[in-house]
Amino acid sequence: MPAGIWASEEYAKLRRYDADTPDQPTGLFQCHQADADSAVRRVCGGWAGCHEGRELLALRLALLDGRIDTVTYKAVVEYVSPVPLFSSGSEAGAHGESGIETPDERARRLINKINRTRNDLVQ
């Protein structure tokens, strides 16, 4: 993923999932490619792949609350990324923030794609 796609507060969210389980956010980190209220939202593969799924408070709560089923829970816990990932949310956040001021061409193309795809974003 190129750096600089999201605002700094979005990258800050990633770091909070590195905390001990009781101190983590309770919301699932879902795919950036769908609107916030979309029925096709998916758990972010990078988020699932760089964290120990069983230790994610948000994942546990989503299962208990019925926001995900046991098949989804198991898929997230067992997920192995086909591409290399950052080792933590902090590492991913630092990478993302490094390009905010000067996103490269690849990042600008992705930003434009996201803006075309998402109808719930405010610029």
Salient structural properties:
single chain, 123 residues, mainly alpha, globular, 0% strand, 6 helices, 45% helix
Architecture overview:
The chain is an all-alpha fold and 123 residues long. The protein has six helices and no strands. It has helices spanning 8-16, 45-50, 57-65, 70-78, 89-97, 105-117.
Beta strand count: 0
**Proportion in β-strands:** under 5%
Instruction: Give the termini separation.
Output: 21 Å
In DSSP terms, counting alpha (H) and pi (I) runs of 4 or more, how many helices?
A: 6
Approximately how much helix is present in the residues?
A: 40-55%
User: Structural class, judged by helices and strands?
Assistant: mainly alpha
Give the uncertain stretches in residue-range form: none
Q: Evaluate the radius of gyration.
A: 15 Å
In a few lines, what is going on in this structure?
The protein is an all-alpha fold. Helices cover 45% and strands 0% of the residues.
